[in-house]
Amino acid sequence: AHDVVRHPAGELAIDGLSVQQLAEEFGSPLFVLSEADFRRRAREFRNAFDEAFAELGGGVDVYYAGKSFLCTEVARWVMDEGLRLDTCSGGELLVAQRAGVPGVKLGLHGNNKSDAEIRRALDLGVGRIVADSLPEIQRIESIAAASGRIAKVMLRLTPGVHAHTHEFIATAHEDQKFGLSLAGSDGPSPAEQAVLAATAAEHIELLGIHCHIGSQIFESEGFAVAAQRLLGFSAKMKSRHGVELGELDLGGGYGIAYTEADNPRPTAEIAREMAAVVAEECTRLALPAPRISIEPGRAIVGPSTFTLYRVGTVKTVVVDGAAGPAERRYLSVDGGMSDNPRPVLYDADYSAVLANRASSAAPVLSRVVGKHCESGDIVVRDAYLPGDVRAGDLLAVPATGAYCWVLASNYNYLPRPAVVAVRDGAARVIVRAETEEDLLSRDPGA
Ligand code: LLP
């Protein structure tokens, strides 16, 4: 977050609050989220895309992807900043409902939505359900018919773009579970069949088409190719069937910096590039410009948060280095893969800094590890941290806002940490820490 500064005495502070104070008051590990930073990024997406697409004659709807991090407080900030909210389960819909988010501002995703989830979405009057498969279109139709409602539907298509990111977070190539393929070996493609099914369904209003090519993406080429393929598909549907697909959602996936090696491009630049591609394609295909929507999650919440850990055990081992035997120091902290499984899941890189004091000790190659009973329980694989880091020190790991707390587990019966939001020199809990009693409360024999 931009509002983290180091005090002259050497301690990190965010919005005037020292990390020592935060750890003492709220415990550790602790997710510390800057409200101002979150809001700034949310606003930046809205403004940048609105401006870039202004010439095409329409606003842009920015749906914050709640899967990246969600609680009622964050849902309210998202509404305050004029964004909408993308959900992908009944649970996320419930958070939105409790936060008072108007149904029209909500979207529902998912490749295997239950009937109950579809019903909840329709009862809330969601602005759109993004249908993922042909059978789902039939289910939406019959649930909407039974409740006498009209479901607003987008179709999730797979444009066949292979985004350069980790295999498990790339989502638009053919051989994976999401979406309706644009490629048909014989006869109409699944995407075309879906357009026909949705337009024929009496209780479905087909709004448009959607794609999401993956996550933590830096090159804009993938987005551009996806936009071209979807617009090409729109033109085909118009000429073949007279169907106008008025909305085009280009998904989320904008990459952020986890370490100094990552170089994300400014949001405004990406927006301008996407607007240029859409404008050019629409002219070429003689298509009216569609209404655009996007679904960023990570790029809004990721950088707004850091995790505070307290160091416990310190040990040094001798390893084979490129230039002969070298030392590596292991710094064990009081959390780990249960509050941030991303290093284990995706080989994700993070960085760490000594947070509670300054040190002039020479940096030492260190590995920050958790307290779980697995040797793969790594928080930061390689970090150069001062040689005098000791038990009791605090480490801050930046950029843990997205896909950390929401992916957290109770492995080894560790309670999940609290999330505190800081704003104007005050911190408040927006999700409290679990207690051991919370965990035991689901065990009837405990
Ligand atoms: N829209 C759809 C349909 C999505 O599936 C996703 C993310 C997003 C938007 C938001 O993408 P973002 O802007 O946050 O990249 N757990 C993985 C990431 C999974 C992303 C799932 N879908 C990770 O920690 O890297």
UniProtKB/TrEMBL annotation:
One of its GO terms (molecular function) is diaminopimelate decarboxylase activity. Substrate binds at R298, R342, Y346, E374, Y403. Pathway: Amino-acid biosynthesis; L-lysine biosynthesis via DAP pathway; L-lysine from DL-2,6-diaminopimelate: step 1/1. InterPro entries: Ala_racemase/Decarboxylase_C, DAP_deCOOHase_LysA, De-COase2_C, De-COase2_N, De-COase2_pyr-phos_BS, Orn/DAP/Arg_de-COase, PLP-binding_barrel. PROSITE patterns: ODR_DC_2_1 (PS00878). Pfam families: Orn_Arg_deC_N, Orn_DAP_Arg_deC. Keywords: Amino-acid biosynthesis, Decarboxylase, Lyase, Lysine biosynthesis, Pyridoxal phosphate. The keyword Transmembrane helix does not apply. Its EC number is 4.1.1.20. Residues 309-401 form the Orn/DAP/Arg decarboxylase 2 C-terminal domain. Pyridoxal 5'-phosphate binds at G253, E295, P296, G297, R298, Y403. Its cofactor is pyridoxal 5'-phosphate. It catalyses: meso-2,6-diaminopimelate + H(+) = L-lysine + CO2. The modification N6-(pyridoxal phosphate)lysine is found at K67. Residues 37-301 form the Orn/DAP/Arg decarboxylase 2 N-terminal domain. Homodimer. Specifically catalyzes the decarboxylation of meso-diaminopimelate (meso-DAP) to L-lysine. Belongs to the Orn/Lys/Arg decarboxylase class-II family. LysA subfamily. This is Diaminopimelate decarboxylase. It comes from Arthrobacter russicus. The lineage of its organism: Bacteria, Bacillati, Actinomycetota, Actinomycetes, Micrococcales.
